[in-house]
UniProtKB/TrEMBL annotation:
InterPro entries: HTH-type_Bedaq_tolerance, HTH_MarR-typ, WH-like_DNA-bd_sf, WH_DNA-bd_sf. Gene3D superfamilies: Winged helix-like DNA-binding domain superfamily/Winged helix DNA-binding domain. PROSITE patterns: HTH_MARR_2. Residues 1-143 form the HTH marR-type domain. It comes from Streptomyces mutomycini. This is MarR family winged helix-turn-helix transcriptional regulator. It holds the Pfam family MarR.
């Protein structure tokens, strides 16, 4: 195993195993049935705005990794559907900020609640030790996500 696979600090964390596990879980998680069907990109934009606050289109292009024209079309549709709104940027009158609306937040909350309903019976089938292990890993996974966001990834 190389240090890249094991991590930079010569730990016993196998990055390959972590990657495979996250990918396998994500494959399941993003395909959970939901009450309201929206594209992954739509949900990602709504999540980004809900958690990070209003963003310029150029910032969303970077975080969502889609083209400027594609994002502009998506934001136009979301605005028409009442899920986001554009407002002038108070720090730069030439720019606009996209912000999530209350209706957009409701979709996000409903999605999390719906997914929680699907996960709860599966979690109940885990052993107490498995549930404890997942619980113990949550702060580290949250920190890993923060570091990724800080790094622009």
């Amino acid at each position: 195993m190389t240090s890249t696979q094991r991590g930079d600090n010569n730990t016993d964390l196998d990055v390959g195993d972590l990657t495979r596990t996250i990918e396998n879980f994500n494959r399941y998680y993003i395909r959970l049935p939901v009450v309201q069907k929206l594209s992954f990109t739509t949900l990602s934009v709504l999540d980004t705005l809900a958690f990070s606050g209003p963003k310029r289109l150029t910032e969303l292009v970077r975080t969502e990794q889609i083209s400027q024209p594609g994002l502009t079309q998506l934001v136009t549709r979301l605005e028409r559907d009442g899920l986001v709104e554009r407002r002038p940027d108070p720090t730069d009158g030439r720019a606009v900020l996209v912000r999530i609306t209350d209706n957009g937040r409701k979709i996000g909350r409903a999605r999390y609640e719906d997914r929680g309903r699907h996960l709860t019976p599966l979690i109940a089938r885990l052993t107490p030790a498995e549930r404890q292990a997942i619980g113990a890993a949550l702060p580290a996974l949250a920190r890993l996500a923060e570091l990724g966001a800080e790094a622009g990834g």
